[in-house]
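Can you make up a protein sequence with its C-alpha cells?

===
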Amino acid sequence: MRTTGVLAFTLGCLSVAGCYHVTLEPIAPVAAERLPIAARVDVPAATATAIYEVHSGMAGFANSWTIDVGKAIVQYAGAYLPNAFMPGGDVTVRVELATFDVHDFEAHAAMRFTVVRGEQAIYDKTYQCRGEGYAARVVWGGAFAMKSAMRKTTDEALRMCFSQFLDDARVEHPTWVASS
C-alpha cells in the first residue's frame, strides 16, 4: 500500500512538470531622435535563433523554461534601430548576442553592437546589461509566475542594451560618416 502511495505521488509530481516556452510581448517602435546617418540593421542567424533554457528549484526543478532570446533581439532591433537612423546603407549596425544567462532570477545579457562601413568596423562595443530579479513573484506564484518573471527580466536586459547603444550612437555617429 505504501508503494502505491509513493508511486501515485511521483506520478502526480511528474504530471505537473512541464516545459514552458517564454516569448516576449511584441513592442511598439521606440521613438528616438533620428541620427543623420543612413543605416541598415543586421542580426546574424546565430543570434536570431538563440534560445536559453532555465531550471529553477524554487519554481519546480522538473520544469523548464525556454526563452526565445534570439527572436526577442530581432524584434527589439526592429523596434529600436529603424527610427534612430535614416533609411539606407551608409553603415550597417550588426547586433550580436555574446552571452545570455539567468541567475538569481535576473537575466544577464552581453550584446555586441558593431557599426561597419564597407568592410571596416568603425565602432565595436559589447554592452553588459541585466534585468531585475523577480524571485518574490516565483515564491508566491510558482511555475506559472516563473514564465512572467523570465519575460520581464529578459525584456529589461534587452531594452537596457539597446538604449545604451543608442546613447553612445548619439555621441559617436559623427565619426561614422565617410570622409569625402
